[in-house]
Amino acid sequence: MPHVSDYELQLLPTLKQYFGYDSFRTEQQHIITSVLSKKDNLVIMPTGGGKSICFQLPALLFKGVTLVVSPLIALMKDQVDGLRANGIAAAYFNSSQSSDEQQDIFEAIHHSKIKLLYVAPESLSLLEHIINEQYISCIAIDEAHCISSWGHDFRPSYQQLGFLKSKLPNTPIIALTATADKATREDILTQLRIPNAEQSISSFDRQNIELEVRPANDRVSQIIKFIRHRPNEMGIVYCLSRKSTEQLAEKLQLNGIKATTYHAGLNFEKRHKAQEDFLFDKTQVVCATVAFGMGIDKSNVRWVIHYNMPKNIEGYYQEIGRSGRDGLPAYALLFHSYADVIQLRKFAEGTTNFDVQIAKLDRMKQFSEATTCRRKILLSYFGELLSDNCGNCDVCKNPPELFDGTIIAQKALSTITRLRETEATGVVIDVLRGARNATIVDKKYDQLKTHGIGKDISWQNWQHYIIQLINQGYCEIAFHKNNALRLTAFSKKVLFENETVKLTKPLVLTEKVTRKTPVKKLLSTTLFERLRQLRQQIALEENIPAYLVFNDATLKEIENERPLSEEEFLSISGVGQRKLDVYGTAFINEVKAFIDSKKNSKKKSETHRVTYELYKEGLSIDEIAERRNLKSTTIYSHIAKLYSEGKAIDIYDFVSKPEVESVKTAQQELKSPDGLKPYFEYFDKQLDYFKIRLALSIIAKDS
Ligand code: ADP
Ligand code: ZN
């Protein structure tokens, strides 16, 4: 039997040859060495942390087969396709295969032709005759938390896995999961009968995911803007109800966004299609309930939006973790609303562990309302302490400004008092703002002394302030009394003892251009785009998801490094021997073609094209001008030129039809003069130059 140290020399070469990577991530090497020395292991790593290599690489070095127990067929298929793309002999076994197919697999095992065999726990009994130490050299239990009824994905079929250790006492077991809590961990060890397994718990920090929480006002248009700023980036929007996934997808489609729906109420074909379309980059957005995700290994999900608040932090973290698995920047946007909190409380009512669920919901709420680094809060929930603020969340990037909000607090609290603590936030705000709707008039609230004392503050800002008062304990929601706002012991201090209340200013709600593409880079993004298209074409030919050809991180590196020889190509992270052999030429040629085309068109790389790229990203004229450090009028002249060239410009966003008509009249009366000035004078300087220019380009194009 080979000794561990024999393996040690092979680790890095094997990693490069088959997976294309030059080094291990923290923990990976240690775990792999431990597995190779035949110890049992429990690996806790966040989604995207790189668990798979921890058993796939040892599998290549062991003599026999590594049996991988995995809960979902979709997940298995994806992993097997990925392994094969790397030139690794892998297969999956399930009951839906024909007996011929199954026989082929057994044959391959007998002749040591398979390194990894994926199987669902339900199908293990069909493999009985090969589950012995003659064939099996290692057992990996993926998504191991499914074994525990404590966990959130309990699967009864996982509970019979204990027999594996009894039957193969000398075969190392490696159990892997992204669920960290202690009860689940202990359950896994007990049930798999591996009490002495080495445990490695990796950091749960996913620094590449930017975190943001926004109030849930006008969510749909915020989401549309968000997506328009990211035209080539795929993402998931999680909604609480099936109905809202459908409604949202429809609205996105109406706005020209390729969106689809996924929830447990759809039949198998529809769900399968939604998932495939997403994996194969045929759809940009999936509007889904939390039913969507477990089978999603897609590495280039760039963002996750929570349309509704998740019911706990575990769920939230797992869902946002589906973005940015390739390590490139990703974005998690959560919409926070009190209506959601109330809804989630209702769901929790009547369940056996109500208290636990409410406690978890409270932590979720605290996270959403945080005025300190959100990542710190998130990680502390998982028992991990960050010493510095993360710098990559909305609070870090935009620290809230505190001001003396005592008067505001007094107004709100005295209104709550006068309403005898019987009304929910909405009515309280209506009274503060002096509304005279039916409820207010019927209940004679317009006669209260505080009616209208908060007119100067907008509805949304009142909402923002009241949320903060609740957070700071100055008032509370009586969930069992129609969510009425009630006073607390702290209220008195504000009302009668003049305690100072600090509030944060509301943020102005505009879609920020958060990840600016430097203007200089825009022209070179075309190489990435060309590489992306080449990847897509190969993926279609091979019928595998594009990210299995190369993930985005690898494409980015090709874009930056521009490899022109096989040797250079092999040095790219993510390029192993097989991928060099089968894709190398195509990608190198694409890079060469790009460089040549750049040489030819260098003179033609006109500035208005850069404007067009930014326009397509959804930036306004002023934003483009600011980004490019040019005048708005210059940008308008680009827009006119682009329109003349036939580019997709919504020209009437900038100039109205009547204005175009009047310019047309002017043109006739002035007998088509040169330059714009005659027009400007003609309109008594009342029509902006840029509008004249745009109108003329429309007239020229139409004629
Ligand atoms: P998990 O199963 O923990 O969610 P994966 O095993 O799917 O994560 O790995 C996530 C991504 O990280 C994959 O794209 C994988 O290829 C990549 N990866 C894993 N290990 C390394 C490494 N040592 N260097 C670079 N990338 C890696
Ligand atoms: Zn932060």
Sequence of strands across the biggest β-sheet: 3-4-2-5-6-1-7
Fraction of residues in H or I helices = 40-55%
Q: What would you report as the Rg, rounded to the nearest angstrom? A: 30 Å
Bound molecules: adenosine-5'-diphosphate, zinc ion
CATH homologous superfamily assignment of the largest domain: P-loop containing nucleotide triphosphate hydrolases
Which CATH C-level class of the largest domain is it?
A: Alpha Beta
| Unreliable residue stretches | 509-524
List the helices and strands and how they pair.
Blueprint: H1 4-19, H2 28-36, E1 41-44, H3 52-61, E2 65-69, H4 73-85, E3 90-93, H5 99-110, E4 116-119, E5 136-141, H6 163-167, E6 173-177, H7 182-191, E7 198-201, E8 209-215, H8 219-228, E9 234-238, H9 242-254, E10 259-262, H10 268-279, E11 285-288, E12 301-306, H11 313-320, E13 330-336, H12 338-348, H13 354-368, H14 374-381, H15 394-397, E14 402-404, H16 406-418, H17 425-432, H18 438-442, H19 459-471, E15 475-478, E16 484-487, H20 489-496, E17 502-504, H21 519-522, H22 525-542, H23 546-549, H24 552-561, H25 566-570, H26 577-601, H27 607-616, H28 621-628, H29 632-644, H30 657-669, H31 677-682, H32 689-702
Parallel strand pairs: 1-6, 1-7, 2-4, 2-5, 3-4, 5-6, 8-13, 9-11, 9-12, 10-11, 12-13
Antiparallel strand pairs: 14-17, 15-16
Bound molecules: adenosine-5'-diphosphate and zinc ion.
